[in-house]
């Protein structure tokens, strides 16, 4: 796998969209099943007020000195504000992933738009699990750990009784990302785990 | 309040003790209600395998450059391994807080021992909420945000239907810490919020 040694992901959205939970699950899955060193962090402060929410993951084959994402390889923007705020941090060849139902103005063609919130409502009846739809999509796009293993971590973390709801949302997101022609965007090959959840 | 500009907390325990959840709730409460800049992070890697779990909080009146705890002001050790592993990182005048039912060998007299897990079982019937008992105790000991406000954040974060269980656990921990003569350990004055939850 041609992966840079350090890979940074930023999640941005509004409070209540559950992005910290999604980041935590992905971080644990990458650590446990992807064999990487992983740091997951969130910063709160005046800039994060007004209901804004962000979370970072950094993973690497080597121990991580600085745990914040400074130049994300991937930015997930769950709303327009997050896209506007963090896009300038993205690496020049980084990938922008947006909730296309909530982000109208996408500042680059190098972007994947998936209607996470609409999909959550359509597939499960609950917009609340848009974060899990996004988690599914990121699992595909990042390609550092198999979806089965992320799902395993997910199932162990969600409240009892919500497993099926979360699984459905996760799979919907994974599938939606698979249907995007990412290699045209990234120049990378098809994904190793593409058929695992089919 | 004579608080050093940067205050670091490390949570250590085993996977399943819920310390990352406790750290996340405390971080959000300190940010939202304590008016501080807060970073909350967890690192995963080979050293954290075998079911070990840790989480850091750093808070400050000023923006935080480096989000990991390097010299914690307070170490919460939920088991002996965490105590043994992280004690040497603690600041010379830092405070060690241990689950006294699970940590037999305490390497300093400058320590607060509270049987978090036993209390959780006794007060709620569920050892699972030992993390919330510890959160209550830390809320008292750190004294950066009122227990009512931590409880508010807590109530908004826990799964529906578990509010009462978590509230009970949190209050049991807060009360247990109040009964400890911390000023003898720390030389600091009585706590501003001492009577709030009585």
What does this structure look like?
The structure is a homodimer of 198-residue chains. Chain A is an alpha/beta fold and 198 residues long. Chain A has one domain: Pyruvate-ferredoxin oxidoreductase, PFOR, domain III (Pyruvate-ferredoxin Oxidoreductase, domain 3), CATH 3.40.920.10. Helices cover 39% and strands 20% of the residues of chain A. Chain A has seven helices and six strands. In chain A, strands 2-3-1-4-5-6 form a six-stranded mixed β-sheet, sandwiched between helices. In chain A, helix 1 crosses helix 5, helix 3 crosses helix 4 and helix 3 crosses helix 6. The longest helix of chain A is centred in the first third of the chain and has 16 residues. Chain A is globular. The two termini of chain A are 22 Å apart. The model of chain A has no long low-confidence stretch (mean pLDDT 90). Chains A and B meet through helix 1 and strand 2 of A and helix 1 and strand 2 of B.
Provide a concise account of the structure shown.
By secondary structure, the first copy, chain A, is an alpha/beta fold. Helices cover 39% and strands 20% of the residues of chain A.
Low-confidence residue ranges of chain A: none
Range of strand content of chain A: 15-25%
Compute the number of structural domains of chain A.
1
What is the assembly state of the chains in this entry?
homodimer
- Rg of chain A, rounded, reads 15 Å
Under CATH, the topology of chain A is which?
A: Pyruvate-ferredoxin Oxidoreductase, domain 3
Number of strands of chain A: 6
The average pLDDT value of chain A, as a whole number, equals 90
Largest beta sheet: strand ordering of chain A? 2-3-1-4-5-6
Given the structure, what is the number of helices of chain A? 7
Instruction: Write the CATH architecture name of chain A.
Output: 3-Layer(aba) Sandwich
């Amino acid at each position: 796998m041609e992966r840079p040694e350090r890979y940074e992901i930023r999640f941005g959205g509004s409070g209540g969209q559950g992005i910290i939970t999604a980041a935590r699950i992905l971080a644990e899955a990458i650590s446990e099943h992807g064999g990487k060193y992983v740091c997951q962090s969130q910063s709160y402060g005046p800039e994060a007020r007004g209901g804004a929410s962000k979370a970072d993951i950094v993973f690497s084959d080597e121990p991580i000195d600085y745990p914040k994402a400074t130049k994300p390889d991937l930015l997930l923007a769950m709303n327009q504000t997050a896209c506007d705020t963090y896009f300038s941090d993205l690496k020049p060849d980084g990938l922008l992933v947006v909730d296309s139902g909530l982000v109208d103005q996408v500042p680059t063609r190098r972007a994947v738009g998936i209607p996470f919130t609409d999909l959550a409502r359509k597939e499960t009846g609950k917009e609340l699990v848009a974060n899990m739809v996004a988690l599914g999509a990121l699992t595909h796009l990042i390609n550092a750990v198999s979806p089965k293993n992320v799902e395993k971590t997910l199932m162990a973390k969600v409240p009892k009784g919500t497993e099926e709801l979360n699984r459905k949302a996760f799979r919907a997101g994974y599938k939606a990302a698979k249907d995007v022609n990412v290699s045209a965007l990234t120049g990378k090959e098809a994904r190793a785990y593409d058929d695992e959840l089919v």
